[in-house]
Amino acid sequence: MMRAFCAGPPVAHLKSVGTMVLQTLRKGASGFIAKGFLAILTLSFVIWGVADVFRTYGANAVAKVGDTEISMDAFRQQYLNQLQRVSRQAGRVITPEQARAFGLDRQILDQMIAETALDDQAKRLGLALSDDEIAREIRDNPAFRPQGATAFDPAYFGQLLRANGLTEERFIGLERQRKLREQLVESFGGSVAAPAVLRDLIHRYETQQRDVSYVAVGPGAAGALPEPTEEQLKAFYDAHKITFRAPEYRTVAYLALTPATLAPWIQVSDADVKAAYDANPGRFGTPEKRTLQQIVFPSTQDAEAAAEKIKGGATFEEIAQARKLSDKDISLGTVAKAELIDPKVADAAFALPEGGTSAPVEGAFGTALVHVAKIEPGAQQPLEQVAPQLHQEIALERARRELLDKHDAIEDERASGSTLAEVAQKVGLPLESVDAVDRSGRDPSGAEVTDIPGRADVVSGAFSAQPGVETDPVQLPQNGGYVWYEVKEITPARERPFDEVKDLVKSRWTEDETVKAVSAKAEALLAEVKGGKSLADVAAAAGLEVKTQAGLQRGRTTSDFPAVAVQAMFDAKLNEAGVTSGTVPAERILFQVTSETVPPDTALDARLEAQLGQQLEGDVLNQYVAQLRKEVGVSINERSYLLAIGGSGN
User: Fold this and answer.
1) Helix (H) or strand (E) run with residue 302 in it
2) CB contact at 8 A, 120 and 68
3) What angle do CA 182, 23, 3 make, to 5 degrees?
4) Which residues, including other chains, have CB under 8 Å from residue 120's CB and lie 6 or more apart?
5) What does the alpha-carbon distance between residue 577 and residue 589 come to, in Å, rounded to a whole number?
6) Fewer CB near the last or first residue (10 Å), C or N of the chain?
7) Angle at 91 between CA 89 and CA 92, to 5 degrees
8) Which residues in 624-644 are b (16+ Cβ under 10 Å) and which e?
9) pTM recorded for the entire structure
């Protein structure tokens, strides 16, 4: 065995590295089968469902695979580890209830069952792996070497195991199981190739392009509708009563504690506003900018000589030309003082008048002369102009700091038995009310109720509560505050009589009849095309325009064609005409497929072939694992399973 590897002093700072121990040997595995092993085992549960028997037996086992039991402790540990990993990836805590809703518990159990079934099959086939082979893989794995080392370090390896709470024997046992499973599953890899005919069909399906001629048939082509009679409207109302039924409404009172609702009660003095203004002088204005030129000289003497020439009447440009420097060579651009890298050059440049040239400056890049070609004065908004904005910002910032204290004060008042109205009065915040809101968050006029912070959660909670029953507050995202609410009154759903909704009935009837008329017109035009007339002649007779669309691709919409229309155009045969839906309900598209092409793409063919091979390998593996489960027999202890994931187990 490998105990001889592990003697040696502890190695520091391995905690983060240690969490990767059980993954390190997997990095050396190649091929789709090895890389997709866990995904395949997880997916097998989804594909075949729960075909296993749920029954109650040994209290400490979650499942039994053949003669092997999966203990509650092992399942619970793997479940919690996976739950933590998913939470880290999501950036928030995933609760056990959410995990069960996602099916995480079933996926993990199914994975463990599949692995156990493979272990059982490996035993039946007499597969084995020597200690020497395991030892060789561990010695050759660079993950078990300190950074920069070229050879296996027993002390480092031992520290990694201890950081993960593993003994040497336990780790070797886990790796032995993993390698034996790989021997089984990799026997399927690398030999499944997609048939050429299947690859060609998929390539054609994915890349085929079609050109169509089409006519958009709208309400104008169908003609004006006759005015509906009272009997027609009543008949439409009777046939669609549920459409005109008034939904249940609820009256909801709410107390919103947010920075915005708390800010008006925050005291901000004029001195506070002025201090904030003075602390950020550049925020409320634009700084002065200057168009600058600079010549850097090889020595101080050269710079001084050039400065004397300028004093004698030479221009800065003449000095530059004499040194064979272009305008680009000497330009620093139009910049603010803070934008200049060299502080000495900045100080000199912004102390000069427009047109002025500095004395020699000992800058960071050598001795230089700086010339100011142009000055653009800065602009500053006066305090009086920005005071309201600063006042609001200061109030909001202070409100955020006081938010939790105010939250605790509200909860204390509620705990003492105060009503929400009394709480609002005591803490100095307004109690708002919505007279009527339905489950979708709309008022009786159909308009969305947008004033409630956290509207979706508040409305959902209100329709799960009853009047007079205390509800939990809604926490707004990113510490945006809290909303307490209560249901004051429930207005039950009811049927609205015809006279109350007559105008709405007429509007819906008109919409419905318009769609029918447009559909009938489009079908009539289609019949003419199928009767032998050209699409152009049919469109001209109806006063409609024929348009064309080239290069349509399956599954890709355009501005004129929704997904259902594109699908219809690919379902039709070449030169065949058809009718499909338009971009709005009262529009139909009369089309004719005029041509089709399948562009050659050898790179795409190779990619498709590889993907198909991988999918076929996955299908074979899934079937193999499913058959193993049937052969060895699987039973699940429902009570232990529920207890392990935090259920009642009753």
Assistant:
1) helix 300-311
2) yes
3) 90
4) 65, 66, 67, 68, 628, 632
5) 10
6) C
7) 115
8) bbbebbeebebbbbbbbbbbb
9) 0.50
Residue-wise pLDDT for 132-171, tens only, equals 888 888 888 887 777 777 778 787 888 888 877 778 888 8
Rg from Cα positions in the chain? 39
Cα 559 from chain centroid (whole Å): 26
Say whether 380 sits in a helix, a strand or coil. Answer: strand
200 Cβ neighbours under 8 A, 6+ residues apart: none
**pLDDT tens per residue across span 181-232:** 777 777 765 566 677 777 778 878 888 999 999 999 999 998 889 999 999 9
Region of 573 (left: φ > 0; alpha: ψ -120 to 50; beta: rest) is beta
Query: What local confidence, expressed as pLDDT, does residue 525 receive?
Result: 96
Token pair for residue 73?
């402790």
The structure tokens listed for 493 are 């759903």
φ/ψ of 312, rounded to 5, equals: -80, 0
User: Which region among 117-131, 397-411, 595-609 has the lowest average model confidence (pLDDT)?
Assistant: 595-609
> Can you tell me the distance from the alpha carbon of 3 to that of 7, in angstroms, rounded to the nearest whole number?
8
Query: Measured between alpha carbons, how far apart are the two ends of the chain, in Å?
Result: 46
* C-beta atoms surrounding 456 within 10 Å: 11
Q: Note the pLDDT tens digit of each residue in 347-385.
A: 999 999 999 999 999 988 889 999 999 999 988 888 888
| Cβ pair 207, 554 in contact under 8 A | no
For position 3, what pLDDT does the model report? 38
Evaluate whether 587 touches 581 at the Cβ level (below 8 Å).
Answer: yes
Give the dihedral sign, CA 598/601/607/612. Answer: positive
Q: Residue 217 in contact with residue 580, Cβ under 8 Å?
A: no
In tens, the pLDDT along 567-591 reads 999 999 999 999 999 999 999 999 9
CB atoms within 10 A of CB 243: 12
- Cα gap 164→162, rounded to integer Å: 5
> What tokens appear for 320 in the block?
């530059």
306 contacts: CB under 8 Å, gap ≥ 6: 295, 297, 319, 369
What is the number of other CB atoms lying within 10 angstroms of the CB of residue 263? 20
